[in-house]
Amino acid sequence: MRVVSGLACVSAAVGIFLHYRANVEWELETTPTMHGMELFREAVTGSLPLLAPGAMLQIGLLGLLWSHRHPALAVTAGSRTLPMES
């Protein structure tokens, strides 16, 4: 679960970056003089939504949170149960 959630977080971060970069390129093709905060705002609200990979990031973080201190991942030492170090 941790591996899948971690991979979901990594791929979501890459997806956000790629969507943002594609939106910036599109905005610069249509309006070459755009720059600064205006370019950022247009790229964030552009044709390729950043919310799709953002939702995937939330799901991955939720999976990591759920499995953070799961009892099945505990290491036993004698009669005591110790949490795993990550």
Notable traits:
mainly alpha; single chain; 86 residues; rod-shaped; 7% strand; 63% helix; two-stranded antiparallel sheet
How would you characterize the overall build of this protein?
By secondary structure, the chain is mostly helical. It has one domain (2-82). The two termini are 14 Å apart. A two-stranded antiparallel sheet has the order 1-2. Helix content is 63%, strand content 7%. Strand 1 (75-77) and strand 2 (80-82) form a beta hairpin. The protein has three helices and two strands; from the N terminus they run αααββ. The relative contact order is 0.19.
Brief digest:
This protein has 86 residues and is mainly alpha-helical. Helices cover 63% and strands 7% of the residues.
What is this structure's SSE topology?
Elements: H1 2-30, H2 36-44, H3 51-66, E1 75-77, E2 80-82
Helix pairs in contact: 1-2, 1-3
Indicate the proportion of strand residues: 5-15%
Residue share in helix: 55-70%
H and E order: HHHEE
Tell me the number of structural domains: 1
Count the strands? 2
> How far apart are the termini?
14 Å
Oligomer type: single chain
Strand count, sense and barrel status of the largest sheet are: 2 strands, antiparallel
Rounded average pLDDT: 86
**Model regions low in confidence, pLDDT < 50 over at least 5 residues:** none
Q: In one word, what is the shape? A: rod-shaped
Which radius of gyration do the C-alpha atoms yield?
A: 20 Å
> Which strands sit side by side, in order, in the main sheet?
1-2
Total number of helical segments?
3
Structural class: mainly alpha
